[in-house]
Amino acid sequence: MNITVFDDLNTLYTKAADTFVDLSQKAIRKHNRFVVALSGGSSPKAIFNLLATQEYAEKIEWNKVYFFWVDERWVSLNDERSNAKMTFEALLDKVPVNKDHIFPMYKDGIEPEDYAKEYEQQIKDILGEKGIFDFILLGMGDDGHTASLFPGENVLNESEKWVDAYYLKPQEMFRITLTAPIINKAENILVVAFGESKKHALNEVLNGEYNPTLYPLQLIEKKDGFQFFTDEKAMG
Q: pTM surpassing 0.70?
């Protein structure tokens, strides 16, 4: 595991965008495509905004990139809470991607649990039975959750499904998410988590006893290809 502590967020975002470019080039050289799963939130949005600039966009063969999502609120794609909507506005509408290579984690007219099965099949259609993403971008909540793997939820115990959907009572809404087994298969994982509010959870995830029921990010294996970008306030 490689932890990088940044002095300022602009440098962190720049390094994250550089990482995306570098991994895309390596994956495309290796097997002529780059298959990613992206997170929502303000940190990814800042990274996506950078990737959409001419300086970065011209370094990426966008027609060879496949876009999945790490998790999603079960809301329509034009809802302001949609991770996909944010990604389209910040990045996908601004670069020459192949629309057939974009797989939003939402579909009208279907129950979330049923779409979780459909979404898993979409992943298998692209990645096969091995299911190895080239790159997964994760965040971490103040409570130590990542993706929609929230403390105390049954989804934390999932060992077979790659995608799961469930009703998250505290938020009074359905969530759909990649599970720990599929995330852990990824070739490269970048977790971006910073700020004073993350300090306690980050310390527990990195240094505390193994208790993923309380700190779900601990489910993600800290192996080669795992990077953590943070700042002084979170590391404390």
A: yes
